[in-house]
Amino acid sequence: MSTNTVDNKRKVTTSRLIEMKQRGEKIAMLTAYDFSMAKLIDEAGIDVILVGDSASNVMAGNMTTLPITLDQMIYHAKSVIKGTQRALVVCDMPFGTYQGNSKEALASAIRIMKESHAEAVKIEGGAEIRESIERILTAGIPVMGHLGLTPQSINKFGTYAVRAKDEAEAEKLISDAHMLEEIGCFALVLEKIPAELATKVASELSIPVIGIGAGGGVDGQVLVMHDMLGINKDFSPKFLRRYADLSTIINEAVGNYINDVKNRDFPNENEQY
Ligand code: KIV
Q1: 157 with 191: CB under 8 angstroms?
Q2: Who has the most CB within 10 Å: 53, 112, 219, 225?
Q3: H or E element that contains 31
């Protein structure tokens, strides 16, 4: 059993996250992409489940988040929703479904909400996609922003290094963060930026700021589940804390199973009809 301090089964909503920030209660968010894992982390008391486009990496084996499609994100979100009772489920809008024009962005967001039953969408970017976010918000779809390292722009950045280290990028990030709050986003993810900058943004905004590689001065944390459970061992950035070593556990369990099958030890008399 987990040893978390979650003591209630009350459904997490966007307004409840804002209340959590007001009370100073930290928000715990993790990614999930399928029914079984969503059920496990929901039962453990996670506040927010992100159906991240990191599914492109950890589920589909792609090098970047760019190839995943809207249909594939809807498939993952639909599976996660079925396993979730308490957590708020947020679905990433994949690359190419919102940058072109705001009508297309709204149509993509509506498909996510209608077909998957996710409760909010997350979108990477600031001023350059303002119109798309505004149009989505007018349809009553809650939007979580995402600034800093935005992996869908990897081909522009050319690297997954820490963002907003220089003054100009930091200033743009601060201005984008305020803009996202002003137009009505209910929360903001800040990825891989200096802790001091993230703390400043969190203190200036009234919506929750959830960090990944952004230090402890924000209102909550998010990690990719496969990384924090040690399923994906190839990825070891400084910000990542591993809470389990599932790759070793799975390797040993599968090794034992193979041996038992080869040695005719499995199945035994009690394991047959
Ligand atoms: O896709 C994802 O998993 C994300 C998190 C890293 C925030 O966007």
Answers
A1: no
A2: 53
A3: strand 27-31
Rounded to an integer, what distance in angstroms lies between the CA atom of residue 213 and that of residue 238? Answer: 8
What pLDDT, on a 0 to 100 scale, did the predictor assign at position 3? 54
pTM of the model: 0.96
Given ligand 1 and candidates 30, 51, 65, 225, which is best to mutate, with the most ligand atoms within 8 Å of its CB? 65
Gyration radius (Cα) of the chain, Å = 20
In this structure, what token pair is assigned to residue 96?
């190419």
CA–CA gap between residue 235 and residue 256 (Å, rounded): 26
Q: How far apart are CA 80 and CA 31, in angstroms?
A: 10
Cis bond upstream, residue 67 (ω within 30): no
Cβ of 224 closer than 6 Å to ligand 1, yes or no, is yes
Token pair belonging to 44: 């453990």
pLDDT tens-place string over residues 202-255: 999 999 999 999 999 999 999 999 999 999 888 899 999 999 999 999 999 999
Catalytic residue among 124, 191, 252, 269: 191
Query: 224 C-alpha to center of ligand 1: Å?
Result: 7
The stretch 162-189 carries a mean pLDDT of: 98
